[in-house]
Amino acid sequence: MAKKDGALITHKGGCHCGAVAFEVVAHASVTAQACNCSMCEKVGFIHLIVPADRFRLIEGEDALTAYTFNTGVAQHLFCRTCGVKSFYVPRSNPDGYSVNIRCLDQSTFSEIQVEPFDGQNWEDNAGHLAHLSQI
């Protein structure tokens, strides 16, 4: 796990075409999760989960379209123009956002560690993520 450096800073991100822009407040040194579920593997999503109050959509709400499956709880949000899923509200953390670390400006991070997450066995493992939207 990446060592937290104490200070929270603002990281900027967005989709490929620029229609969606957002900010996330997180440490400069973070640990993100690479999930192997059917959705994350196909889109290459690497999760940085943050509390809802540390995520701010700057522009592009009207450019987003939602996709849901299975239980319908997770709101997978995609840019209508370029198709990039840069963030969403995950079922594991409905009180937060999961941001694709690949969609954030990497220059504001001092360290990004990526740990595996077994999403293929989601029901057995989802509880290990719940605390991430609380910190």
Word description of this protein:
- The protein is mostly beta strands and 135 residues long.
- The chain has a single domain, classed as Metal Binding Protein, Guanine Nucleotide Exchange Factor, Chain A, CATH 2.170.150.
- 7% of the residues lie in helices and 41% in strands.
- It has helices at 38-43, 122-125, and strands at residues 8-14, 21-27, 29-35, 46-51, 55-59, 64-67, 75-79, 87-89, 96-100, 111-117.
- The strands form 2 sheets. The chain has a 7-stranded mixed beta sheet, with no helix packed on it. The chain has a 3-stranded antiparallel beta sheet with strand order 1-2-5, with no helix packed on it.
- Strand 7 (75-79) and strand 8 (87-89) form a beta hairpin.
- The longest helix is centred in the N-terminal third of the chain and has 6 residues, at 38-43.
- It is globular, with a radius of gyration of 14 Å.
- It starts with 7 loop residues before the first strand and ends in a 10-residue tail after the last helix.
Number of beta strands: 10
Q: Any idea how many domains?
A: 1
Sheet with the most strands: spatial strand order: 6-7-8-9-4-3-10
| Main β-sheet description | 7 strands, mixed
Structural class: mainly beta
Distance between the termini: 15 Å
Q: For this structure, what is the CATH class?
A: Mainly Beta
